[in-house]
Specification:
By secondary structure, the protein is of the alpha/beta class. The protein is built from eleven helices and seven strands. A seven-stranded mixed sheet has the order 1-2-3-4-5-6-7. The two termini are 20 Å apart.
């Protein structure tokens, strides 16, 4: 069993890179992919530990991108991409591009803190940074809101305030989807559509058309195995991948305590990614 979608405390997970590697070894995982948001710092920290432990560590990243709207005046949809660098970690040019994304994230965080204060919450950006370090994001805002008693739990924080349709949501400057795919491929990586069920359930035929367009942009894979997926969803995405000539990826989307009940390797008990998934990706 392998897990190609996990997060450390360098983005919005709660385990350090060392702790995540140790947890993967204790679980008996054959391979682990670290896919922190907008940063390779967790992978960099984990690499020496993984070598010592004999764990097959995969360099990855998760990017928030935005699909260009089909009509003027309409906000494009947010789409998450996973990037996997299966031969070597990306070079400095890709890392410099990531720095621009991180600056946009920090700007959004300051505006989000101000928005929450306008709704009567005593939320200071310094407190959020304390929880999220250089890669603070909405899960860290949610944790602070729980700590201060404004919401009962992280899910409620998102439902009421932080999700895209919620009261306090503020946009951040995200790269366009095609740009994200191109940058991953240009850095020697393979771009995969993350947790696709979040986009597909409303209109599967329209979603399949979108996937075909993304394939033309250079999308190489789709995340068929994920903790959000029911068995029927997994089968749907495996079949869709075959129809469009895409590889498949998969993982739990583990975040530690930021996603209670979601376990490394197995998600909510519904994830089992076979080793052959990674072997096929490497053959590409």
């Amino acid at each position: 069993m392998i897990d190609l979608h996990t997060h450390t405390d360098e983005s919005d997970g709660t385990l350090t890179a060392f702790q995540l590697v140790d947890a993967a070894v204790a679980l008996g995982l054959e391979a682990l992919g670290i896919t922190d948001h907008d940063t390779l710092a967790g992978y960099n920290d984990a690499a020496p530990r993984a070598r010592e432990a004999g764990l097959d560590l995969v360099c990855g990243i998760e990017l928030s991108t935005r699909r260009r709207a089909r009509a003027a005046g309409i906000r494009g949809r947010s789409i998450h991409l996973l990037g996997y660098f299966l031969r070597e970690a990306p070079a400095e040019g890709f890392r410099e591009w990531l720095e621009g994304i991180r600056l946009a994230r920090r700007d959004r965080n300051e505006r989000l803190a101000a928005r929450l204060r306008s709704l009567g919450m005593d939320i200071a950006i310094e407190e959020v940074k304390r929880l999220g370090r250089s890669q603070a994001g909405r899960p860290h805002f949610a944790r602070l809101m729980v700590e201060k008693g404004y919401v009962a739990n992280i899910q409620e924080a998102f439902d009421l305030y932080l999700d895209e349709e919620a009261r306090a949501y503020v946009e951040r400057d995200e790269p366009e989807l095609e740009t994200g795919i191109r940058m991953i491929a240009g850095a020697g990586g393979l771009a995969s559509l993350a947790h696709p069920v979040r986009s597909s359930r409303r209109n599967p035929p329209a979603f399949e058309k979108d996937v075909g367009e993304m394939r033309e942009m250079g999308l190489a894979a789709i995340e068929a195995y994920h903790s959000d997926h029911r068995p029927a969803d997994t089968e749907f995405f495996l079949a869709l991948a075959r129809r469009h000539g895409l590889a498949v990826t998969g993982g739990s989307d583990f975040h530690g305590d930021n996603k209670p009940g979601l376990a490394l390797g197995t998600g909510y008990g519904n994830v089992a990614v076979p080793r052959e998934v990674l072997d096929k990706l490497r053959r590409l």
